[in-house]
Design goal:
About 40% of the residues lie in helices and about 40% in strands. By secondary structure, the protein is an alpha+beta fold. The mean pLDDT is about 80.
C-alpha cells in the first residue's frame, strides 16, 4: 500500500504545477492582466479570367455584335456563313477582412526588490526543511 500512496502523492504534486494551470489561476485572480485585442486578417481571393470560343453557321445575322456588362464581354462576328462567338470575363480580386477578438496577457516587469520579496516564502520554507532535516539527523545519530 505504501508504493501506491507515494505514487498518488507524486501525481498530485506533478499535476498541480503545470504552467497552463498556474496561468489560468493567475488570470482568474487578476483579470486586469488580460488585455482585449483584435487580430485583423486580410484575405485576398483572386478569380482567374475565363474565356470561351465557339462558332455556328448562321446566315441571318449580317453585322458584328458586342455585348458588354460589367466584367463580361461577348462578341458575335459573322464571317461568310459562320458565326464566331467569343466570351470573356475579366479577372477580379475579392478582399475579405476578418476581425478576430482575442485576449492578450499584459507582461509586468518587476524591479529587483519585488523579485527578492517574492522569493522570501521559498527561502523560509527551504530553511525550515533544512533545519528540520538537521534536527532529525542529530537526534538519530545522537542516541
Amino acid at each position: 500500500m505504501k508504493p501506491f500512496s507515494s505514487i498518488l502523492i507524486f501525481l498530485i504534486v506533478a499535476s498541480s504545477c503545470s504552467p497552463s494551470y498556474r496561468l489560468n489561476r493567475l488570470l482568474a485572480l487578476h483579470p486586469e492582466l488580460k488585455i482585449p485585442d483584435t487580430i485583423v486578417i486580410n484575405d485576398t481571393i483572386t478569380t482567374a479570367q475565363i474565356e470561351a470560343d465557339t462558332f455556328l453557321r448562321f446566315s441571318s445575322i449580317q453585322d458584328n455584335i458586342l455585348l458588354q456588362k460589367d466584367k463580361l464581354e461577348i462578341t458575335l462576328n459573322r464571317i461568310h456563313d459562320t458565326l464566331y462567338i467569343r466570351g470573356k470575363c475579366k479577372a477580379d480580386t475579392i478582399i475579405v477582412q476578418r476581425s478576430i477578438p482575442v485576449e492578450k496577457i499584459k507582461i509586468v516587469n518587476y524591479d529587483k526588490m519585488d523579485n527578492m520579496i517574492s522569493k522570501i516564502p521559498w527561502l523560509i520554507s527551504g530553511l525550515i526543511a533544512f533545519f528540520g532535516l538537521l534536527i532529525f539527523l542529530i537526534q538519530k545519530f545522537h542516541k
